[in-house]
Amino acid sequence: MSHTCLSWQRLAPWTDTRPGELRYRLRCIDKLGYTFRGDERLLDVGCGNGGVSRLLRGRVAEVDAVDVEMSTEWQDGPGFRFRVADGEQLPFDDASFDLVHSKDSLHHMDDPTRAVLEYRRVLKAGGTALIVEANRHNPSLFVQMTLVRGHEHFTRHRFEDLVSTAFDDVRFGGFEAHFVPGASRLLGLQHSVEEALERIGLVRSILSYNYAVARA
Fold it and tell me: To bridge 8 with a disulfide, which of 23, 32, 101, 197 should be the other Cys (CB 3.0-4.6 Å)?
């Protein structure tokens, strides 16, 4: 199995995911800067329709994907299982996983601190949690998520404090990523703009996503 990050250009011809959405999903994985070995067992918490879980399955040996509501798009396969479960009370034994992936899940939970402690509990010693949350200080996402959808997503400082309640060894960072429906012809330009924004020191605190790569 190749552990090289697959580009959205090469994946697009054989996936049914729209190119813009695929590029966005892959960017949100690749920007974490984590090197997958290929033999890991991974838990994807808050998997939604399973689209990201399927991309992650291409980089690890096994994926268990959970969400509080079942999706009609869920379909188990070799090394790939879906189930309904609550991230605040995961139905797995201690030290069951090499990796936990959680994107835009914590801010939906009643007790995100408890969820982060659950992530830590189910990780093996030396395992890693890959946690991504939208940045409340990003102007675009504040409008979309707070004003329109009513989400209570986190500031960067709140996010860092939250993850640090369960993990001592954490690498924090941020990146810019957006999915713009109907803008597939401008993906190259969008990619260049996002890369440029990440290099500007003055805007790093308001990049669209904060992430944590936390070692158990």
Answer: 23
How wide is the angle at C-alpha 27 spanned by C-alphas 110 and 155, nearest 5°? 35
* 3-state DSSP assignment of residue 150: coil
* Chain position carrying tokens 């990780």: 123
Number of Cβ atoms within 10 Å of the Cβ of 95? 13
| 29, two tokens | 């994985």
**Domains in the chain and their CATH numbers?**
19-215 (3.40.50.150)
pLDDT digits (tens, 9 = 90+) for 106-151: 999 999 999 999 999 999 999 999 999 999 999 888 777 776 777 8
Q: List the one residue out of 92, 173, 66, 94 whose CA is nearest residue 130.
A: 173
Query: Tokens 């399927």 map to which residue?
Result: 54
Helices 19-30/187-198 angle, 10° precision:
20
